[in-house]
Amino acid sequence: MKIIDSVAKAYSLGSVRHLQALHNGKTSMAWQVEATTGRYIVKTIQSQKQAVFEFAVSNAVRQRSLELTPEILLSIACQPFVVIEGQTYQVQAFLSGTERPPSLRETLKSYRQMRQVLDQFDYSFSPPDSMPLAVLWRAHREALSEKKPVLFHQIAAMVPELKRIDQSRDAWIHGDLGKWNLLVTNSGQVVVIDFGEARLGPKLLDFAALFQGFMPKNKQDLMAYLNEFLALSGIQITDRHLFLMTVQLWLVKGLLIVINEQASLAGVFQNAIELVSSLV
Q1: What is the Cα–Cα distance from 248 to 211, expressed in whole angstroms?
Q2: Which helix (H) or strand (E) holds 45?
Q3: Residue 129 and residue 245: Cα distance in Å, rounded?
Q4: Residue 24 pLDDT > 80, yes or no?
Q5: Distance (Å, whole) CA 2 – CA 274
Q6: Structural contact between residues 9 and 37, judged by C-beta atoms closer than 8 angstroms
Q7: What burial class does residue 7 get, using C-beta atoms within 10 Å of its C-beta: 0-12 exposed, 13-18 middle, 19+ buried?
Q8: Across-strand partners of 31?
Q9: Which domains does the chain show, CATH number per domain?
Q10: Per-residue pLDDT tens for 173-194?
């Protein structure tokens, strides 16, 4: 791919020996690149402004600990991006993850370190939410009503409160902290990747995403899991209701995104929403 060759040249990576397309994210495409100087991740970025912002966030996190997130590299022009044929590209150091899934304790330990950085982070620009609840609700409420009428009425009653949470801008967040953005290294360190959805947003949204990622499927295990999660995360008992409603926000947005195209995944979100409703 000639464009990747041009990216490699702009970053002085050497000759590209092997190129593998990776699963595309919400806002970008990515490739694993093996060059003469090593392995890298090359991804598209929406804009130069976004690229500089992602570099600033990840660099702040890495100042806390180099193990928390991969390094975003600078080009030979000392910029955290390169523009080729009108498209902005970014290059990251490649981290090899293990097959071992992350544990809840290890994940929350890493995220709480990152949370300390994000609580002190200061930046003049915040990207918008790429999928706000108000937009998703307008676009998919009819489909939800037709396919899952009982669930529709349950969610409709929550929507006003969920919108208020979704519109809050009280903390810097990763914004897409599902298990797909976690890696476990050989040393057992949980690493967070892809700041493409980072922004100002609801303060507990990242915790909500992690809660869903480790949530048990059985209702009888849910209360013990909630108590363990609150203890490990440091979330105060006074924020319990806000946290659970933020979990519902994360789940409802996920459901609306998949309702028309992925029936089996919609069922997973439905089950999770009903389980969390028993805790609220």
Answers
A1: 11
A2: strand 38-45
A3: 18
A4: no
A5: 49
A6: no
A7: buried
A8: 21, 42
A9: 2-93 (3.30.200.20), 104-277 (3.90.1200.10)
A10: 999 999 999 999 988 899 999 9
